[in-house]
User: Fold these one by one.
Assistant:
Number 1:
Amino acid sequence: MTTITMASFMLTGSDNLSLTKRMKSPNGPGFMSSSSSVIHGRNINIPTLGLKFPKKTPKSIVRCSSSSRPASQLRFIQHKKEAFWFYRFLSIVYDHVINPGHWTEDMRDDALEPADLYSRKLKVVDVGGGTGFTTLGIVKHVDPENVTILDQSPHQLEKAKEKDELKKCTIIEGDAEDLPFSTDYCDRYISAGSIEYWPDPQRGIREAYRVLRFGGRACLIGPVYPTFWLSRFFADVWMLFPKEEEYIDWFKKAGFHDVQLKRIGPKWYRGVRRHGLIMGCSVSGVKRHHGDSPLQLGPKEEDVEKPVNPFSFALRFVLGTIASIYYVLVPIYMWIKDQIIPKGMPI
């Protein structure tokens, strides 16, 4: 495994914090280079990442990872074939096991707020929509007949088809890195809990830009990279946990403007990213020009038609599934700590 190094960043903030700061980024991969990138927080501490804060005594110091861990690093369940079989079984209990700890209705509604679903008539695509849990939040604001759910897992989509609120939605199988929609197709692109399985996240975000109309907005919701060593280990074994600056960098490179990142978390979350969150941030951006993304990419990283070694595949699948159990236990552990440790103190 890649050697992980650690460095400290100074955090500053207070309860009910709401910050908007222009970012100045250090030179190097993984950091955003535009002053228009914004991080919005609520009840959290914001890492400096090159920001200039007023001269105040910081209230806390938290260790954050600064490793050069590549997003392309191989995880056991990240590519499409592993994800397909992983959800073949997980789809049975997804809404009852994963969501209660990591992806609640309150979190979903909070994470969708940057999507600006202001009209029932907006045309929306929900990429990696799975069982339709996120789509249920979308159809609160948009007419179901204007919403398309796309996922590569027929087993997940079968669960979505069973939900009465989604009966009028268009439900199709498809690839997030090669969307079956025309350029300038929709008003809103939304994807929640999908990027962690993309072999090439930059390609998927480029596709989000392409299919949006001029003035359209993308809202991508996903996990955040942990800082606790054991959580980092299982994150790297299991699937992709991007860093916050990576999300922003991918959006900017795809051509998005007004890129914003909003931290989200379950009720036990107190602004500490130590263990990582399967749904930890909501990133949004606006398409300011018609047509395709200015970013040009080469061939796709993963050829799903290429034969695989059955033994190797089975071993990867088993190890990745074992690693995923750790993140089922994390919310239970954190919920217990939340009940014991006095409010106002980080956990």
Number 2:
Amino acid sequence: MAVFKPENVEDFYEIGDVLGSGHFGQVRKVRELATGTYWAGKFLKIRKNSCSRLGLERSSVEREVEVLQTVQHPNIVALKDVFESRAELVLILEIVTGGELFDFIADKENLLESEAIEFMKQILEGLGFLHSKNIAHFDLKPENIMLSDKLSPNPNIKLIDFGLAHRFHQGEEFRSTSGTPQYIAPEVINSEPLSTAADMWSIGVITYILLSGLSPFQGDTDQETLRNIIALKYEFEAQNFSETSSMAKDFIEKLLVKDPSERMAAEDCLLHPWIKPITRKQEANRNRSSINMKNFKKFNARRKWKMSYNMVWVCNRLVHLQLLCKASSDPDSLQRQCESDSEDTESKPASLLRRRLSSSS
């Protein structure tokens, strides 16, 4: 169960500058009075009643807090404290100053596969630890893969934003329509029972983008993107993967598998020859290969420009409010309106996109 402190956060922390803002709150730099250590304070407005349109549901924040209080790993952002007042929850988190991994890479002139693999290892180690606790992230994308400090010669990866994370219990069947279209797995679109394998699909997409600078399933519209995912419609075009090793392509192919049970798990990925070469020849081939930096820079620039249009959360406000006010369903099963640490966005829910996809096919 999530643990909240009833004390005033300002009795323990000095509140500093705003680091970011979203629909329902702000992230501010805070200084711990007892030690002088700096942290990130995530100040979230909570709904006063079930029919309110302002603020987050307390239960949704509780789920995120429960996850973060369970996992402690070098590659997962740490949660130190949670304070509760009448209309606000404050999460005191490890401060992450290095920015997004993709921005860090885009600033480079070139990047060998072997260098990119060092980042992938950390992502997989953090994710593997999360999965070992029967927790899925369900929102893996470049915006949620950060660096603790980009000035370090060996930057440390931090997975952030666990607002959609879910802990699985034995015998449980869990479904969700949460996520950003180009990163979600087919079983999410089809509203099938989910598992930690959904995260591994996202890893496959992220790796494809990292190597080629292209998104494997991206269409002109969200509906087209979802169709491409369901049809498993992607390819390794020669002009975009000319510098990519065959092992890297094999790594991706073993993740972009429609059947979740056939995908590599995080621990399998760490043993794949692309990550851990078995022979000198494999290591040499990997070390001669590089990512398509020209394409990658273009992708990252477009991504930053379009961030305000990306789907961050399942946000079906009107339906949510109508159902909630009529008390016709369990609030925990309803879709929720949420915020992102890095984005102030809102878009159509995946369920609506799925219905449109079905009606037009």
Number 3:
Amino acid sequence: MTRRLADVSTSARLATPGEGLGQDELALAARNHGLPLEAMRYDITPPGLHYILTHYDIPHVPDDAAWRLTVNGRVRHPLSLSPAQLRTRPAVTTRVTLECAGNGRALLTPRPVSQPWLVEAVGTAEWTGVPLRLLLDEAGVASDAVDVVFTGADHGVERGVEQDYQRSLPLDIATGDEPEVLVAYAMNGQPLPPQHGSPLRLVVPGWYGMAHVKWLRDVTVVDTPFTGFQQSVAYRIRQGPEEAGEPVTRIAPRALLIPPGFPDFMSRTRVVAPGPVRLEGRAWSGRAPVTSVEVSTDSGATWHRAELEPDHGHRWAWRRWSRMWSPVPGTHVLSARAYDEAGNAQPLEQPWNRGGFANNLVQRVPVFCTDPTSR
């Protein structure tokens, strides 16, 4: 009996009521990982702690010298560049917070069956590379150009479609300087690790992680809107499978707490002692600069303004916030809520969508404050 790709590649679906995580989701969770939230104490996330989402396989690149990045399509002077040649061009280093578009998916009801993220799919790194706009200027973009398509070396099947991982950006974003898109070859001052796209990757400040194409090998300028799978089928915000949906683009505002105290192993409930406790965390938004963070220690009944550190010139990176709290013995639920300059705020009730994308519901952190007199 002849089998088709569709027979080994399941379609998108929602978990049935009461359905736990299946082997398919557990397999995804085992090969991808989130940021341990206590690691938000680092301004810059070490590469091994930064979140990872790999759609297919991590390509094996035995020799960087053999790698070529092509810039072609609707250009006057096609380019073919090695990583070494890119490193001779003017370099830019930008601190950028990356967040997976599906962060928070596992908290939705019904749950979209995919990578089962809670809230840890985030990290902040300093990326060094060549501004994409300079490469496109060197290649000479044609006047009829519309989109720029980016092709990675990772290859697989998704919902019955065999493909290289491909995404596109509108020409004005690809050639703009706010944000300035990078073809990056270094992370935190070191060559890209394999899991982060070695030898070259795209970095699109302010956009969710699906736009940051790893293992980048082709940049193709096209004169019609790109309709590849990852652009027009995946990464769309829709309520039903028949809808075209809205594209996932810039990161919605979010604040996360660095979990206070210490954890119970299984429940992850935090344990603190009575008395002053500094609550702190990070906040970010790709839509506009974060302007304030509020904190609740009573399950969202009341909110209080936190102290927000300046961004120190790092527009596209998270910002530290803090507030003192004096817990009394008992059980508490902590939350933080970010607001940005454009008026966007984290919702107190999460809107649902079929793909589980752009979730930024306020975090809930259970905390148990011990009673010293009861020991």
Number 4:
Amino acid sequence: MSRTTDIFLTALAPAIWGSTYLVTTEALPDGYPVTLAALRALPAGLLLLTVTRCLPPRAWLGRTFLLGSFNFALFWVLLFVAAYRLPGGVAATLGAVQTMIVILMARGWLGTPIRAGAVAASAAGVLGVALLLIGPEARLDPVGVAAGLGGAASMAAGTVLSRKWQPPVSALSFTAWQLTAGGLILLPLALIVEPPLPPLTATNLAGLTWLGLVGAAATYVIWFRGVARIEPGAISMLSLMSPLTAVILGWAWLGQAPTPVQAVGAVIVLGSVWAGQRANRPSAAPAVAPIPAGVKPPA
């Protein structure tokens, strides 16, 4: 597939993740963030393991659990803490900072050059998300801010390390390993810090099914496939599609019509995603002039 096709396919994942807020608030019981995160990750991971029948070798266990922590366990817990302690717009804006963190981590861990255009696109994306989601009632809570920034750093680390550590298996198997590892980390934590879930209704089960099968299993296969093919800075910009989708769903499902400021923010987000793909495009290898016949190459 072409790079453009890979980008559009990978963008489907964060676009679908934008439904998480709506599903969580409208279809799931309130007050069980760690338990719900475990129920989202572990069944999806076990299902994919059943399909792939591919377990991580012993040499990959440490990396698998570290990636499962960064991409799922730590990230989802911090995300929920930030969402509970901050207005949704503030939490989402802090999460958007991960695009800048990815640029720095990719420089340190992958040797990727820092490009001015990529930094500018990332900064514009954060501004666009802020205009899209932050209202005049926004407040700052130190614990919530720390959780939001920690979640952004966790997602950034997971993205860059998933690019650095590519096992010789399919994206389906790689996703299965990480989801299962993340779920195994979350499950005992949920049993310790949260009370048992109440009896689940049909709506609750439908919400969990959506978040597990579609919002975790299917979308993360697409995401990790993209991580292996697209530059870290470029793929991190695609995550900005998530808050944009959340606003669109709030408008279509809950009747929350966007304001003119939000419309400007949406345009900036889309523009920054486009600019981020161009700025993070790998440089073409310099052309090497052919050696004329009869000329001996230098030693």
